[in-house]
Amino acid sequence: GLSEPGEDIGDTAVREVFEETGIRSEFRSLLSLRQQHTNPGAFGKSDMYIICRLKPHSFTIDFCQHECLRCEWMDLSDLAKTENTTPITSRVARLLLYGYREGFDKIDFTMEELPAVYTGLFYKLYHKELPANYRTMTGM
């Protein structure tokens, strides 16, 4: 789905998943970003497709039939192996399998809110999580 003006990445993912599937969730991390130019469906603009890892809080699917043809829970191993999907879906399924097996710290871009240079404003920085001994380092 599309972000609303001024809507954060994680908030867009949570809202769109709810609108399209009826599943309530919370943002956990940013997994990947696809950048594409001259996409005919992007209103003449470059297109960025952001994939987030969410934690579900509900599991009963009530999908929007205007936006989805089919909606179901699938085993990640099956999804990673199926030939009946897009390359991005099978790649992200393999990425998630790796995270489950080796730890999400290996794949997640976490979000940290930091103060902007403008007083009273903040921004969200997405990055691999730093080890504890690097989080508060000063004066190298």
TrEMBL record:
It is found in: Cytoplasm; Nucleus; Mitochondrion. Keywords: Cytoplasm, Hydrolase, Mitochondrion, Nucleus. CDD domains: NUDIX_ASFGF2_Nudt6. The keyword Cytoplasm applies. Its EC number is 3.6.1.-. GO terms for cellular component: mitochondrion; nucleus. It comes from the Eukaryota. Residues 1-98 form the Nudix hydrolase domain. GO terms for molecular function: ADP-ribose diphosphatase activity; NAD binding; NADH pyrophosphatase activity. Its main location: cytoplasm. InterPro entries: NUDIX_hydrolase-like_dom_sf, Nudix_hydrolase6-like, NUDIX_hydrolase_CS, NUDIX_hydrolase_dom. It is an enzyme of class 3 (hydrolase). Gene3D superfamilies: 4.10.80.100, Nucleoside Triphosphate Pyrophosphohydrolase. Belongs to the Nudix hydrolase family. May contribute to the regulation of cell proliferation. Monomer and homodimer. This is Nucleoside diphosphate-linked moiety X motif 6. It comes from Mustela putorius furo. The lineage of its organism: Eukaryota, Metazoa, Chordata, Craniata, Vertebrata.
